[in-house]
Specification:
Blueprint (H helix, E strand, L loop, with lengths): L3 H29 L7 H10 L7 H34 L11 H14 L4 H25 L6 H26 L5 H10 L7 H20 L1 H7 L3 H6 L4 H23 L5 H13 L3 H25 L7 H20 L5
Helix pairs in contact: 1-13, 3-8, 3-11, 3-12, 3-13, 4-5, 4-6, 4-7, 4-11, 5-6, 5-11, 8-11, 9-13, 12-13
Length: about 350
């Protein structure tokens, strides 16, 4: 067993390096795609020298494509890492980042802001605020149930109740919205898109996402301990209550911060960690970084499809659902004999 461990670690590191190389390739391909096509060799030359024979190169890359590509990378990484952390904490591969209601809370905040005719900043602030409020409400309800109940089960049930509540409130906002202007805006926001994300949004969101992802990466080994079960983790010296709160806080921060600028993008935080776990294994020290890389590549490819396959941009949530649902069913069938 001791002799096999270095081989396993070497394989995991190799997979992470491979995912990193693939991410770089996907970024270069994404930079070349668009209404104004660019050659990859010209892009590489421009990135290294800052010069190009094409006078539009700088404007197209720096002002148009790069912010959107960075947004896709950040959103894909955030949702995937959040999903991996939650799946590790709940010891269930069916868990997604919105299990505690963050997506429905953020959706209600955005819908309310649109109904009140607030500007884009107001929409983002209310979305972020209500996203975190939904998680806080779920956590508070589960805590109020007392120590006699299963804590994990109470968190899940509380999240379901809060998620249903805010989903109903979103429906109410749609019912009250003007059908010519505000209702289409609410509907489009809820389907998710990177079209309106700019450099100013990224300057605010990226530090928040990093502040949430870094602790989750560093605490991956503690998620491994928690996977043994509540009593076993406590016997090994882990303060499970405090650690669970840290995971929820970090995962909620990165999810809410991304959703407030992109809208709701489903399935990424569910299928990518599940796929990553079956490729690299359940060790969260490697699973979380691998999910970070694969999630970034996946959402960037999805965004490439969204802005390339049609003259009209397709919302990301539609494509991720079309890809994610059948892919997840196939994956479940192939791994149904495995245990957590």
């Amino acid at each position: 067993m001791i002799l096999l461990q270095p081989r396993k670690t070497s394989r995991q590191i190799s997979l992470i390096l491979t995912a990193s190389v693939l991410l770089v390739v996907v970024i270069l391909i994404s930079l070349s795609l668009g209404r104004y096509p660019l050659k990859i060799q010209d892009i590489i030359a421009f990135l290294f020298t800052g010069k190009s024979a094409d006078s539009n190169m700088s404007v197209v890359l720096i002002n148009v494509r790069l912010p959107r590509i960075i947004a896709a990378l950040v959103a894909g990484a955030a949702l995937s890492v959040s999903g991996a952390a939650y799946q590790g904490m709940f010891r269930n591969p069916m868990v997604s980042p919105d299990i505690l209601g963050v997506s429905s809370g953020a959706g209600f905040g955005a819908s309310l802001a649109i109904l009140l005719s607030l500007n884009i900043i107001g929409i983002q602030i209310l979305s972020f605020t209500f996203g975190l409020a939904a998680v806080f409400l779920s956590y508070s309800i589960s805590k109020s149930m007392g120590k006699s109940h299963d804590k994990t089960l109470m968190l899940v049930l509380s999240g379901m109740v809060v998620g249903t509540l805010f989903t109903s409130l979103i429906s109410l906002m749609k019912f009250l919205a003007d059908t010519d202007t505000k209702l289409p805006a609410i509907t489009f926001w809820l389907m998710g898109s990177l079209a309106s994300v700019n450099a100013s949004d990224l300057k605010v969101v990226i530090p928040v996402v990093l502040a949430g992802i870094i602790p989750l990466v560093l605490l991956g080994w503690r998620l491994n301990v928690l996977s043994f079960g509540e009593e076993e983790a406590m016997s090994l010296g882990l303060n499970t209550e405090r650690f669970r709160f840290i995971v929820i806080l970090c995962a909620s921060l990165i999810t809410a911060s991304v959703i407030c600028i992109t809208g709701h993008i489903g399935w990424v935080g569910l299928i990518i960690p599940h796929l990553a776990r079956n490729i690299i294994g359940p060790d969260n020290k490697y699973l979380i970084p691998f999910s970070f890389l694969t999630g970034s590549s996946f959402l960037l490819l999805v965004d490439d499809l969204a802005r390339s396959i049609s003259s009209l941009e397709i919302p990301l949530g539609i494509i991720t659902s079309i890809i994610g649902a059948p892919f997840f069913l196939i994956f479940l069938k192939r791994t149904s004999h495995k245990t957590w």
